Each structure stands twice: as structure tokens, then as C-alpha cells.
Amino acid sequence: AWFFLIDTARFKNDYGSIEMLILLIEDHHLLAETIMDYLAIEDIEVDYAARGFQGLELAKTNTYDAIVLDINLPDMDGFNVCKQLRQQYNIDTPVLMLTARDQLDDKLTGFECGADDYLVKPFANQELVARLTALMKRQRGEVTRKRSQIGNLILDSSSQQVWRANKEIILSPTGFRILRILMRESPAIVSREAMQQELWGTDMPDTDVLRSHVYNLRKVLDHPFEFAMIQTVKGVGLRLVNSEG
Fold it and tell me: Which residues bind DNA (predicted)?
């Protein structure tokens, strides 16, 4: 096994100041060294693997901002590596694929396997850094959008989890959707009609089940705490307010 690890640093250049850790999977040792030397100059931290299997092991045990993946690897091709990352291990780290062939079929196959971007050899190192930065910014933006916070209340849409004051709150699926709507619109008031329309559309329940769902949501979200974040505005609707003022 042949691995390189460059000391943790900060990435500061024309693209902005961003911490970055990438995984490079490339069997051409001279090219790999050239890439790592340039990334080191840009103060980007790199883990390196020369084979697909080694790269998978690193990707499973570490968290990366991006993966640079060569298609032509000795033990398994980059398409297979990317497919395993996505389908077998559920790793959503952005993948930038490298290839010596500027073929449309290769690009389409890469995208079908879950690649996010494609770079044809030979390439300018500056372009590699620019593409990696764009991928990482997009990924971090998506992660931020999946997690909402108001005061000490945090909702994670991707994991369907909720915490208040660092305590996990267990909600029903409908309770989770109600809270997500209230957090999205906060501090504005959400009318009962708008809430029901978003929850059930035209398939509206015959009974007033919204009242029951809101009661159960309040019971777990507000009752254990001193401050009630869900407030009823009589005759208008519901709103979520910041528990920290």
C-alpha cells in the first residue's frame, strides 16, 4: 500500500479561504505526486491511494470534502469505485473523475455512477483547484440547507432528527413535517388552512386531525422546557418563535 498524508492546513487563494481535505485515488505515481505537490502549495490537505480498494477503505473511514478519482485503476476501474461509494456505502462526498479520454460515453457512464464532475487529462492544476472548490462550496451549501436552526432548536431534514437544547426530540412523521413548515416560515404565522394544504393537499382528512398532531408536537417539543416555542395566534394560525429571544 502506498499512501501520502500532507499536514492539515488552510486553503487560501483567489477562490476564497476554505478548509479542504480531499482524497486522491490515482495509480499514476508521477501524476499523483505532481497533483499533491501543487495542492500542498495551495495548502490543501490530501490523503492518497494508488488503488481503488485502498481508496474505498479511506473513504469509508474518513470524511472528505471531495474525492479525485481516476477511471483507469489497476484493481477496479473508477466507475466501479464511484458506484460502490454511492450505492454500497451511501457516501455522498463530491467525486471529480479524471480520464485520459475525452469521450462522451465515459462522461455519461461516470455521471450515471454518481460522479459530480469530470476533468480530462492533461489539465491545468489551477482548473483542478477551481473545480474542487466549486464542488465543495456546493456540497457545504447543501448540507447547510438540510439543517435548520432557530434558537436552541435544530432540525435536520436529511436524518429526520430534531434537537432542542442539545436533547433529541422524537417526533412522528407528521409532527416532523409540521415543525419543518413552522421553522421554514418562522417568525411568520402559518394559517391552519395553509398548513393543512401543505400536509394533505386535496386529500384532506374528514376530522380535525391537525389539532391532535399539534397537541402531540407541543407535548414533546415545548412541555419539557420553560419556554413554549409554538404559539397560537387566535383566529389566525400558528407560529414558531425563538426560545432565546
Answer: 145-242
